[in-house]
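Obj.: predict assembly geometry.
Materials: sequence records (below).
Method: joint structure prediction, all chains together.
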Amino acid sequence: MTTQANPDASTHTVVRDERVKERNRLQRLMIRPEVGAAIGAILIFVLFLVVAEPFREASSLATVLYASSTIGIMACGVAMLMIGGEFDLSTGVAVTFSSLAASMLAYNLHLNLWAGAALALVLALGVGFFNGFLVMKTRIPSFLITLSTFFMLAGINLAVTKLVAGQVATQSVSDMQGWDSAQKVFASSFTIGNVSIRITVVWWLVFTAIATYVLFKTKIGNWIFAVGGDAEAARAVGVPVTKVKIGLFMFVGFCAWFVGMHLLFAFNTVQSGQGVGNEFFYIIAAVIGGCLLTGGYGTAIGAAIGAFIFGMTNQGIVYAGWDPDWFKFFLGAMLLFAVIANNAFRNYAAKK
Amino acid sequence: MTISVEKPSSDAQSGGKVPLVELKNIGKSYGNITALKDICLRVHAGEVTGILGDNGAGKSTLIKIIAGLHQQSEGELLVDGKPTTFGSPAEALGKGIATVYQNLAVVPLMPVWRNFFLGQELRKKTFPFSLDANAMRATTLSELSKMGIDLPDVDVPIGSLSGGQKQCVAIARAVFFGARVLILDEPTAALGVKQSGVVLKYITAAKEAGFGVVFITHNPHHAHLVGDHFVLLNRGRQKLDCTYDDITLEHLTQEMAGGDELEALSHELRSGKD
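Observations (raw structure tokens):
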């Protein structure tokens, strides 16, 4: 770390004591933030196993996982941001923004699709930086800043697409250079046994694993919890609060870009109006997974479980033959239940 | 500690040594409100400087300037004799000035050991340089037991500890990370008698170990027990600047309580009761 000239712990007595390890693993497991979500996920899984016969097939699980993964990759970034004490409402349209940008830049400038994707990444990170910079500079709550960004991006998506492409969707880019390799990375499938699994499922797990590692095993992770838990205290002990928070917004931008690339290479053309409303799904996944809206608490695994619950409910209702119109009702009811349950769990954890 | 080649400073007690931290005519105003004016203060290694003052006297503003949270509007801040302005608390920390705030600058939801090492985490020496959680746990435990705090589990959120325990974690943290100057903002304010004693003993130990300690308090008894040097603030002005030998506890208490005002008050109350 460059901000601190000396306080170097290596010059001091660092005690290593093998007896001092985590104790009482079961109890520690019980008070983890995602335990409520895990129990909920098992209950919902069993429910659909019982009521929906098609749900029991392996291919259905693959479909559920796919639905979970596109929410889960984004929810991973959103959860990190929420642990860092901030909020992003522009994620849903930021996904569309990224895929539109990649597609139109590559198409109109006759670039390799990878070059288009790289430019889109710069833009997506730029949007994240813009959000973070404004939140930190103005000290206006991120809810309001990103609400503004949400509308601005939604407007840009529609207006610029119409201006450039002359219609509400982008042109086909599947015959352009770089399509095949990019599709392999962002939107391919592979088979295990005779079940076809989308590559995003793997990416989802990779994102979650890396985020978990960063949160609990690195300095940055420690700082993320600290800036979310008490930004002033974190600043007082030398944590670069502004950089951490702007970095988190940019990570959300990166996740949005990644999901955006998946959409582009999975569907070839991108509808400029899509993505509106998805930001709530990401937030719901993170909150169901145990993230506190006030920051400083939560896990990436929790967000992944939250996304899995989302995917199960989304597909399970169809498999059960229920009217899919009920999906949002269930989602809302689950969110309410999760928030109350997580609150109870956290109070229990605080007493331990 | 370097010997100054210039003429001896006006502070007789320092014997010509350069103070770790020195304030010269420091002033601070917020808009048209003057919070501090003409504050002079020296902090030497191996000395406890007690800063006393009633609520609103400007104690907090003063430590925020030394700690790097605010910048002075006038006057000079010297560290090791060199004029300095701190842009951030990290810069002050880098110069060895550590502050233990009244609110302790801890993140309540985080475990004790994560708070202890926050901002200066230990990492393993080998790739991928993960946090060395076990070393941090063990170090936290042993540093705390030196303070006489025996926590069964350093994985509990720090918010669940008592005020005295939190205070000790915060002081132990500053000491462990090589502070030369320790600024303690009302460390005994929220503590019981016994735990105050622990903290006061620790202040004396820190002083004997060569730390410069700035002890902010509104309790003259606590200040007189450990202080070598007293500065009394009143409404943003320096009212008193003297050494331990110059002042008795009674005098300090009286000055602190408002001096003549207190006598008048006492007279008024007593005669009212009779």
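Conclusions so far: DSSP finds 14 helices and two strands in chain A.
To do: check interface contacts against the pulldown list.
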